[in-house]
Amino acid sequence: MKVHVKKGDNVVVLSGREGLRGATGKVKSVMPGEGMVVVEGVNIIKKAVRPNPRNPQGGFIEQEAPLHASKVMPICPSCEKPTRIRKKLLDDGKKVRVCAKCGGVLDSN
User: Fold this and answer.
1) pTM of the model
2) Nearest 10 degrees: Cα torsion 98, 100, 101, 102
């Protein structure tokens, strides 16, 4: 599955349980095989872990759980609004992602 967001993009969560909807954060990792993304500080779960060398006490740890990529929308850096993405071919032959509303470039490189 092709994913419309990249690592490092600022995104807003469109749907989900109460408290998750409307949350914003930076994409930590993208899993295109599953169509999932992990967003920093969003969808925090508590996980029970047994004692191990990294965590000798054991107990509960908090970590970000993945969200489906269709539930997030990138935020345009120029107009600072959630937007759909369009592809644009530049004069030098590079393809970049642009904001569908204002035409601002989303790719920083």
Assistant:
1) 0.84
2) 30
